[in-house]
Amino acid sequence: MIPQPQRIALALAGIAAAVLPVLLLTPGKSAPSAPVRRASPLGSPTEPPLAHVFDRPLFAAPVEPVLPPDAPVLTGVVGRLGSDAVALVRTAQGTSRTLAIGDSIDGWRLESLSIDAALFSRGGQRARVPMPAAEPAPPAQ
What we know:
The structure is a single chain. By secondary structure, the chain is an alpha+beta fold. It has a domain at 73-130. It contains two helices and seven strands. It has a four-stranded antiparallel beta sheet, with no helix packed on it. A three-stranded antiparallel beta sheet has the order 1-2-3, with no helix packed on it. Strand 4 (104-105) and strand 5 form a beta hairpin. The N and C termini lie far apart (93 Å).
């Protein structure tokens, strides 16, 4: 048997569960709301933040990196990145070699490899050498 105070609490909870949704969902007169005041951005109050972003074209032409003339030319990356990948490079003399990370060629040291580029350093100079673009295939006849 449920004691008297618990029965009263259950009855009040049941009444509240039945009445509150009806009260909350009925349209009524709401209290007037205060106008919302928004803080202005740090720049000018009329210019939206990042307005300069909208002035740029969405698809800009790619920027070609300026490489030193004696930097190695990356011709390929072979192996698994992060474990046993090596770079296939062509030297300024036209010879080809494979380089593991840490190897040097013509004074340039291979620092890291990615799927489409290699990072070389020499002294305080760094050069990110991208993989050359593929030549378009000839049309089929």
